[in-house]
Specification:
- The chain has one domain (10-266).
- Helix content is 61%, strand content 3%.
- A hairpin with a 2-residue loop joins strand 1 and strand 2.
- The protein contains ten helices and two strands.
């Protein structure tokens, strides 16, 4: 067993206002994603100006935060939302849903693609490779918060999370998700998207591998107490991720059948 490195969730104070590690991780993810998109465009022009990249980063962050928080409350804690709607704004306490955040980002991309007069899938292909940076940073934030802990285990690297029920060691599932949804997914998408691909292919690959990695991680992650296991022993995360895999496969097949290169569509 490895001791859980209890870290104060408050990183520092600005006067009397606490700044939480959880929020800082999202800020780091968004800034890193924006910086990488900007750098990548300088190295290999993709039909976007630096001003447009800044706007994309802003709208993506806004959609992810609003959609992520609203999605969590609706998918995982809707009864609490009804009893206390103000909890929707307490994002520093954790509680963000990837699937809600994804919907928020997609809405933002639809709006932005119309404003920029660029194909929606070309825009999502452009953004998708840097999304894992934010996902990985968010999982580190979950780990620091001591939330979304794993199931009870006897593996040597099991940890006792202070906020978890009981005193048995558990999988550090947040770190598993950081490794899969953050590091590995980033490498897959970044390498794959370095060369021009059919429009929609990068987005499809993102959906497939995120869905697979999330389904795998859910076997080690403790389901939310208010939901528990669903039919067949599935979790809410798996139930939401399986359709994502299917959509990704359809999109990937469609993109190669269509054969239109994304860079050519936005140039």
């Amino acid at each position: 067993m490895i001791a859980y490195p209890a870290i104060n969730p408050v990183a520092f104070h600005i006067f009397s206002w606490p700044v939480y590690w959880y929020g800082l991780m999202y800020l780091v993810g968004f800034l890193a994603g924006w910086g990488l998109l900007s750098l990548r465009t300088r190295i290999s022009p993709r039909g976007f100006s630096q001003e447009q990249i800044s706007d994309i980063a802003f709208y993506t962050a806004l959609g992810a935060i609003i959609g992520g928080r609203l999605g969590y409350m609706l998918f995982y804690d809707w009864q609490v939302l009804i009893s206390n709607p103000l909890l929707l704004f307490q994002t520093w306490k954790g509680g963000m849903s990837f699937h809600g955040g994804l919907l928020g980002v997609l809405v933002a991309m639809v709006i932005f693609s119309k404003r920029m007069h660029k194909p929606f899938l070309a825009l999502t292909d452009f953004v998708a490779p840097v999304v894992p940076i934010g996902l990985g940073a968010g999982r580190i934030g979950n780990f620091i918060n001591g939330e979304l802990w794993g199931r009870v285990t006897d593996v040597p690297w099991g940890m006792v999370f202070p906020n978890a029920p009981g005193s048995l060691p558990r999988h550090p599932s947040q770190l598993y998700e950081f490794a899969m949804e953050g590091v590995l997914l980033f490498l897959i998408l970044f390498i794959y998207s370095w060369k021009p691909r059919p429009m929609g292919a990068v987005s499809g690959l993102f959906a497939i591998f995120y869905g697979i990695f999330r389904c795998v991680a859910e076997f080690f992650r403790e389901p939310d107490a208010q939901i528990g296991y669903l039919f067949g022993g599935m979790t809410e995360g798996q139930l939401l991720s399986l359709p994502l895999i299917l959509v990704g496969i359809i999109l990937l097949v469609y993109s190669y059948k269509k054969g239109k290169i994304a860079d050519e569509a936005i140039s």
